[in-house]
Structures are given as structure tokens and as C-alpha cells.
Automatic annotation (TrEMBL):
The protein, known as: Uncharacterized protein
Transmembrane annotation, as ranges: none
Gene3D superfamilies for this protein: Chitosanase, subunit A, domain 1 (1.20.141.10)
Domain Peptidoglycan binding: 112-183
TtsA-like Glycoside hydrolase family domain: residues covered: 9-108
Domain of life: Bacteria
InterPro entries linked: Lysozyme-like_dom_sf, Peptidoglycan-bd_3, TtsA-like_GH18_dom
Organism: Rhizorhabdus wittichii
A Pfam entry, by short name: Glyco_hydro_108
């Protein structure tokens, strides 16, 4: 499964359509619950993300703009801002890399890369994978030596720890925990829906 097919797949599978829930910080123009304008999100794309991609002020967007977001643009946003912009395209593409990209879609791409750099015990944690840099080389090495399944399992554990810590800091987000857990479980070997078998599709 190439990255374009994967992005379309995870947006369809996990994001659905328009969300206007006021408890979701991403649905607000400021990125903070109750602050600014409730713009909502569509296909998982928030107003702030759409504004960054289109290079316009977030204040210029309305909920109608979010509602009219084409699916194809949502996929383009994911690839441009959450994959290429932080250098995930410099990592070997495999099932574990797909989970790293998916996690960044919710937690933020730089957060995802920093967590990967922590996993790899990199001396510099800067949220970016440079071409032929230490993070890319270390990731390729661990995938080759330990295997992609090992890396996916270690990454799953870090995702779960992140979500649990987030709920401790923001108890109102506990309503999302089961969904987050289901999503991270989906990327582990042996999952009932057969993600690892689907990879070759």
C-alpha cells in the first residue's frame, strides 16, 4: 500500500465527515476549547490546518468553508503537511511508518516525529526527519535489525502512553480514549481486521 492509498484509507476509515463538537479543541479557530470561533473539522482537517495549507488567515474561514472541504484536498493536506513537511517521506515506508503518520494526524506531525526520535534515543529531538540524517538512518537500522513488527509494537506502546497521559492532563478528553485505543490497536500485527495482511493490497 503506497502512502497516497494509505492516507485515503485512514481518512475514510477513522475520520468520517463534518464534526462540530465543542469539546474538541481542534474544532475551534484558536485550537483551544471555547476560545475563538467554532469552525468544526471535516475529514479530520481543522480550520487551523486548512488555513495553513491554503496560506490564508484562519479568521478568514467559516464553518461553511470546512463543510465544503473536498476529500481530495484533505488527502493532499495530509501528505503535504503531515508527511512531507516533517520529513516522514525520508523514512523507509512500511507498516510502522504508516502508524507514525496516522498518529501525527491527531497529535500533530512534529509531535509524532519527536516521539519517534525518543523511541530511537536520538540525541536531538527536533520534530523533523532530514534526508539521510541520523533519524532516518537509525529508523532504517532498527527496522532491519529488530523487524518492522517489533518497531510497530514499540510504537504502539508509546502511542498508548501518550493517550493515557493526555487524558490525565485533560480529563474531558477521556471520551475519546476508547477511539484512540482502537485506532492504535489497528496498526499492530495480528489485529482482527488484518491491517498487516491488507498492506499488500
Amino acid at each position: 500500500m503506497n502512502v497516497d492509498s494509505f492516507i485515503a484509507d485512514y481518512i475514510r476509515r477513522w475520520e468520517g465527515g463534518m464534526s462540530r463538537h465543542p469539546n474538541d479543541a481542534g474544532n475551534w479557530s484558536s485550537g483551544t476549547k471555547g476560545v475563538g470561533v467554532l469552525l468544526g473539522s471535516n475529514f479530520g482537517v481543522t480550520g487551523r490546518t486548512l488555513a495553513a495549507y491554503r496560506k490564508v488567515p484562519v479568521a478568514s474561514l467559516t464553518m461553511a468553508d470546512i463543510e465544503r472541504l473536498p476529500f481530495t484536498e484533505a488527502c493532499a493536506i495530509a501528505k503535504a503537511l503531515f508527511f512531507t513537511a516533517v520529513g516522514l517521506n525520508n523514512l523507509v515506508w512500511n507498516q510502522a511508518t504508516a502508524s507514525i503518520l496516522d498518529f501525527g494526524w491527531g497529535a500533530g506531525p512534529a509531535t509524532s516525529v519527536k516521539m519517534l526520535q525518543d523511541l530511537l534515543d536520538r540525541p536531538v529531538v527536533d520534530g523533523r526527519v532530514d534526508p539521510n540524517g541520523g533519524t532516518a538512518k537509525a529508523y532504517a537500522a532498527i527496522c532491519a535489525s529488530k523487524g518492522v513488527e517489533f518497531v510497530a509494537g514499540a510504537w504502539w506502546a508509546m502511542r498508548e502512553e501518550y493517550y493515557e497521559d493526555l487524558v490525565l492532563r485533560r480529563p474531558s478528553d477521556a471520551m475519546y480514549l476508547k477511539g484512540w485505543d482502537n485506532r492504535s490497536d489497528y496498526f499492530t500485527p495480528g489485529h482482527a481486521e488484518g491491517w498487516w495482511k491488507r498492506w499488500a493490497a
